[in-house]
Amino acid sequence: MTRLFHISDVHFGLEDTAALAWVADCVARERPDAVAITGDLTMRARHREFAAAAAWIRALDVPVTVEVGNHDLPYFNLAERFLDPYRRFRALQAAVGHGANLPGLALIPLKTTARAQTRLNWSKGRVGERSLAACLAAIDALPPGTRALVACHHPLVETGTHGKALTRGGSRALAALAGRRVLAVLSGHVHDAFDLVHETEQGPVRMIGAGTLSQRLRATPAGFNELTFADGALTVRLRSRASTCTG
After folding, report:
1. 3-state class of 92 per DSSP?
2. Gyration radius (Cα) of the chain, Å
């Protein structure tokens, strides 16, 4: 059995300190095999926000994977945003490590952010051809019998939440992932949790979204997803601060 904590949208700079302490306590007591963070670690991609995120992640003392969210691209420094938008995020990855060895399971990244778009709202999702090709190549290179969990920030299609992803290229990407029979696509961004199956022309694909650990709440309280993979099946349990750690 493999157990994974899926969290998202921590937004250091506007984080919920009580929620972060609760998650850290759950990790310390329950010792999941890994923690997957699907983006928006910071609020405005400030250096101090990335430093706070790195310190919190390192203190978890378990393998952690991190994906980039739209809030993790420079907000005030436009020159850096256009010339090297992922420099600060790469520094975070180097500080905390990036990867988890899970038996029979692999976390595969899919980038859904963009330094700029041909629309006013650059916070929305976009799956470029190169990003999708890199994701599919990583899935195709997996050892036989290993199942893929694809991790991205934006939901690839709308999921019925109040927040919208409006991900360009998302439907095409989801169909390609369905054709690869991925176990699920993990995401965040909308600040509300969901677990659903979406039908594509290539077949069904499961989409799982984590809520937020920030003060920017929407319809649901701060929380995370507990994923359990056993006997080829993936189960999801939504955890909120009203729940307790098992210890």
Report:
1. helix
2. 17
- Enumerate domains of the chain plus CATH numbers: 2-240 (3.60.21.10)
Q: What is the dihedral of CA 131, 54, 194, 132, to 10 degrees?
A: 0
Task: Give me the DSSP letters along 149-183.
Answer: EEE-SS-SS--S-SS----BTHHHHHHHHHHTT-S
Kindly report whether the global pTM for this prediction surpasses the value 0.90: yes
Q: What are 75's two structure tokens?
A: 């907000």
Give SS3 for 201.
coil
Helices (H), 31-128: 47-60, 78-83, 87-96
Residues 91-127 have pLDDT tens digits of 999 999 767 889 899 999 999 999 999 999 999 999 9
From 147, 238, 149, select the one nearest 194 (Cα to Cα): 238
Give, for 3, the enclosing helix (H) or strand (E).
Answer: strand 2-7
The list of the chain residues with pLDDT below 50 reads none
The pLDDT assigned to 247 comes to 60
